[in-house]
Amino acid sequence: MTTVLVVDDEPGLLRAMQINLTARGYRVATAATGRAGLAAVAKEHPDAVILDLGLPDMDGTDVIVGIRGWSEVPVLVLSARDQEAHKVAALDAGADDYVTKPFGMDELLARLRAAVRRAAPAPDEPRLETEHFVIDLAAKRVTLRPTGEVRLTPTEWQMLEALARSPGRLVSRAQLLHEVWGPGYDSETHYLRVYMAQLRRKLEPDPANPRYLITEPAMGYRLVTS
Amino acid sequence: MNSGRTHDAVEAVFALPIAFLGMLAIGVVAVATAPSGRALTVLVLTCLLVATVSAASEPRASLPITALGWFTVAGFAAAPVGDLKAVPMSSFGAVVAAGSVGVAAGVWYRSRVARGARKGSHGAVFTVTLDGVRFHAGRGQHDRHTGLSTRRLVGALALAAALLPGLTAAMVAARGSLALVDEVLFYLLAVVLVTLVGGFWPAVAAALAAGLLLNWFFTAPIHTWTIEDPTNLLALLMFVATAVTVSSVVHLAARRGTAAAARAAEADSLLGLARTVLVDDRPETVLAHLQRALGLTGVLEERVAGAWVRIAGVRPKQATVVVSAGATFRLRVNGDVTAASPRLLEAAAAQAAAACERQRMRTQAEQSVALTAGNRMRTALLAAVSHDLRTPLASVKAAVSSLRQNDVEWTEADRAALLATIEEGADRLAGLIGNLLDMSRIQTGAVEPFLRVLAVDEVLPSVARAVGAGSGVVLHVADDLPLVRTDPVLLERALENLLANAVRYSPVDRTVQVVAKHDADCAAVLIDVVDHGPGVPIQDRARVFEPFQQLGDRRTAGGVGLGLAVAKGFVDAVGGRLTASATPGGGLTMRVQLPVAGRMSHQAGALL
Q: What's this model's pTM, rounded to 2 decimal places?
């Protein structure tokens, strides 16, 4: 059974989360302060953490740092702070995704599933199918429906692969740059924009309104397959 | 004040000793070669010397040079040496002519060199342009070449007029016991004294007079202009040359002293100016310093849109000096500027302009600091308000979006819990929005209390019910409470906020007490809201009533920090008083003091 730890000081929200997650078969642990949250991570060994940033005793970003000191558990930030600086700080501290309040329950659950999936052992499913294209990770090939194979440059493929390995999950800009270009390119975010635009031109039915390759402003990119 | 010194004539102070020493040399040669030395050679050499020195020196020096030249010619030209009667008038004419020609040539040459550059006659009104400083000065009361006042010149001449005849009379009386050399030294002493008092020119006059006196009274044959012994004539000439040289040296030293003193005064003044500006750098301070140190009144003006506008100081009726500082500032000075050097005035103008600019920059810096603080405050406020609005909204939306999902079958209990969450969130939003609106009413002065007489126990139970449902609020209301005159709605809102705050900070296992009683002389009803929470340090207690004290989104129990500010605003509006104090044993006690009806205070009336 997948265990999710929810850390938030808002009792109403804690209750709503608990009801939802329990209804979907998760085991839920809750904490109302950062300290209690850190203790619960150690005690409950959750498979994912949903964390509010504005906690009464300490800043949520420090809680992330505390968790990352010894655990790789996926951390999903849930915060009323919607400024870019806060998002970047939380992701840099080690958060896996960032959802701003108020949020829709479906979206949160989808992101939670993606975060948990990433942590789980690599799926034995090298094919990713969508309505418009099929990505074959084993054969390193993309086929458009119904026209056929698309040729991608090596860089384009590496980017798509990085996103397709955990569909639905946020891949941060720094992570993408590091994976595709290697160390030392962490601030060259315009590379990402250029290659993402090329990928969209080749894969998206309407490149101007992307449906699969989603930009998360200030944070990174996400490949949505549904 | 001397500009273009290279084209100036040699000063008399230097020219006269040179001429006199030259004539002494001619005399020595004439005596040494006598009797073969010829009158014509002496005449020609002397004329040449007179003409050359006259040409090179300032014109007034040529008079004594010509006079001494005539004596030299007369003394050494023909045997018997020193017999003035033997000298023809034509040689006198030659010397005078040489002097005149020399002076004319010198003046012509200098005027040609200086033509167009400047008009350089001493003492006239002149204009000097010095790094953008225009400086006009009238004739000063000091002779800038002697550095001495007219009074001292007259004094020195009077001294010479008294000293020389007296000395002569005394030495004539003692003629038997004195040698010529003693007499010469006494006269030298007199000349040096005159120099000390009156400077160079009185000394030259005194030296020439003493020479004539020596000739008439002490060189044989006495009581004639004739001198028997050529060595005596030489001694006489040597005396005059020495006297003039000594007085020249004394004069130069005195002049340097004067100049040094002037420079020291100027440096003092500049230092004072600099110090003044360091302590208090307003343009008025600089002008005050100018007034104090030099007795000058000044006005600082700035060029704005083509016209000069006064910045500081009183506009003088007439300005003798205008000093510009940069392109946009100028200093107009009125008063006697002779004591102030243009450098000093220039410095004062620059300082005044700089002070003015610094003052402006300081004002701007203060403004920008205030703006920055205001911006920071607004940003923090916005963050806090948006957090407080979003948090309950997030609960509401999470619960609503849960209920709308159709992939889950909710149990009755889950459904009820989610609906409760929605209602709670909506209530909190309503409370927050209510407080925001109340605060803006208070801050814009739009609160209008509707006062009526009532008993506080009409209000307290409903407030306690509204806030303290299930959270342990205990009411203690004395049963002898007088009626108060207040607005029940505002009082209720104030008490709700106080009570909500107390409940929020109270530990779960401690109750909040509300105690209502009257004060000692039964003039007011006191309502204490007592909690046992963490309390507020005494130095922060006044600030808890300021709005938005809980900034940022990290707080112990939520709330932008409007509740207490709203409570204070409403209690003030109904003529009451709200104070914070420490609860004995820890925690905070809020006391609302309401005036008893019938003793309605005027201050509440004034507030309406």
A: 0.51
